[in-house]
């Protein structure tokens, strides 16, 4: 038999999942008629909250979950490390979960109780983000894309990717580069670049009427090497702005195999200022996200979400730093 979820209760009662959460947790005032419909739906459907949620009722879970695309990402590991510094001795746990792009993943997530959820996935759907917010658990989005306005109360940390991309593009322009290509991340499905991503939006804004040059839809290193060769043959690009440092390092290897030297023939810039940027040859110029500020802003937003009663989006705007090295 299919397990009854809060979503089922919400549909039966004709309310949002957020209202169901408020009624079951008794942590927000709810209109009497709505409350009665929720309780009747719970009785009718035989809904039973998860054991984890029941055991944590009335106290903070002290457990923060990161929903990400890449479980081995240095970027998210660094942010978690900065968070641990801020809450040392307070008994917090931090977990990573990979967004698998299926409904079952979000169903599982919503059955647990967390003190906070950080959404750092660039591919999770808007509908799934709304479902997470509807649980009533404090939710903070690390804004890598341009999102719609969601219903309910949640937070967004703007890490400065859009303006940071402007810095990277300005740096390349100062080096005399005119045909700058955007290199997207690997993906198994061969999808095109996400045009609502802040990195790509910032790239487009800096073209000054020039043609966009995009290297996307690559599943692995071999595909990237072939795509770069094809695009270079067609455009003779003289610079690459890469979505991540990993893609920048992969691109530098491909350029070397093509007989092109960095930065003599092609300048290369990455994003994240990860450790790999120090070990490429030449060393990689990279856009650094202020991870300690991201961690501090996330905790600030969790606190503000818990204190605020009205449905609204709470935001923090951060800046980035361009670390210039020999690859430009």
Automatic annotation (TrEMBL):
Listed A to Z, the keywords are: DNA-binding, Transcription, Transcription regulation
Which SUPFAM superfamilies would you find in this protein's record? lambda repressor-like DNA-binding domains (SSF47413), Periplasmic binding protein-like I (SSF53822)
Highest taxon of source: Bacteria
SMART domains given in the database record:
HTH_LACI
Which Gene Ontology molecular function entries are recorded, alphabetically? Answer: DNA-binding transcription factor activity; transcription cis-regulatory region binding
Pfam families, from UniProt? LacI, Peripla_BP_3
Q: Which residues does the UniProt record annotate as the domain HTH lacI-type? A: 4-58
InterPro entries, sorted: HTH_LacI (IPR000843), LacI/GalR-like_sensor (IPR046335), Lambda_DNA-bd_dom_sf (IPR010982), Peripla_BP_I (IPR028082)
Q: What is this protein called?
A: LacI family DNA-binding transcriptional regulator
List the top taxonomic levels of the source: Bacteria, Pseudomonadati, Spirochaetota, Spirochaetia, Spirochaetales
